[in-house]
Amino acid sequence: MCGKTFILTDKVEFVPDEEMEKELWFNINASAFVYNKTLEYSIYRENLVKEFAIGNKFKVNRTYTQKIVKTLKKHYPFLEDADSTCLQASTDRLIKAYEGYYDHRTGAPRFKKRKKNPVTSITLRNNFYDTKEGNVGAIRWLSENELRVTKLGKITVKHRRHIKGQIKEATLKYENGRWYVCIVYELDENRQGEFSYGGLYVGIDVGITDF
To answer: Residue 37, Cβ neighbours under 10 Å: how many?
Structure first.
């Protein structure tokens, strides 16, 4: 692997209790709401610049979306109860959509609609902080099959593979009537083989040059 790191994604099923499922859907809906509102404001501002020559030409980037999310939290207090990392991941997806639009690779970003294009997942970024036990991540394994997922709490997975890598993020998704968590690990070349394969699928993201 050219002496660097590689990314491995592990998808495992879990069964949330009623309270956790309610919390998951709240964050999913909050993320979709922020995505749509940020897109709405962006389109409005673009129209002001193009059609009325009001304001300056701009691009949708992280600085811009962070300001909008901050404003949205003031006007919609319920967003304070949502996980901040999933809101950021939501606006990051919009940024990528705009980048494709700016480069003429894709069409203009579209709104998320509950009927035609429902959002059924959230991505949580792993932030690390210092504790008495050392530097720990907001997303981390607590026991054999118990995973802590930021402020949402704990989930118990059905099948865990012991991957000795750093957790970068986790996507919780509702798919065909079941809940799954897709955990993204970062491993270095010295730890490539340090995970047990339990007969289920494992996705590995390998760079073209390294491959």
So the answer is: 19
